[in-house]
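Dear colleagues,

As part of the handover before I leave the project, I'm documenting each prediction I ran so the next person doesn't have to rerun anything. This entry is a single chain, and its sequence is reproduced below.
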Amino acid sequence: MLFGDLAPLVRPLSRWLAAAGWWCTGLGLGAGLIVAVGTGVSLSPSMEGIQRAGLIATAAAASLIGAAAIVQPAGDRDDDAPEPWFYPAAAAQVRSFLVGALVMLLGLVGFAAAGLFMPSGPSPQSVAFSQIFLLGSVSCGLTFLLLNKVLPLAERRTR
């Protein structure tokens, strides 16, 4: 079972919410990169609008993917389900979202700290890159929560 094989286990409402959240993630990443690469020392009014749109997309992505994870019930834990190591590829791919979230969180901390310690304060680029890393961390972490709920696992017997 690979990552794509988990999709049928996700409820349709969760799938639609997650897809909309991932679309907002792409929009937010694009807006953040436009601001990070295309700005100088200060932001023009059009770049401020793009950055504001990126922040709105970040909030929408977090809300939508978070709602998808909340709406999705946990998978059935029964005796017929295989043990977690039976699906090593899917389990590894799901865990990679958690690792990605942690790495992106480290990038966020790095750019935020660099912006805070600059003599002139945070630059538009450091704010934009912080936004990009925040969006990536939130999206990866919430995607991990969603997919981890549907990964088939067997009930552990402790008798």
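The two ends are 29 Å apart (CA to CA). Confidence is low (pLDDT under 50) at residues 154-159.

All the best with the project,
I.
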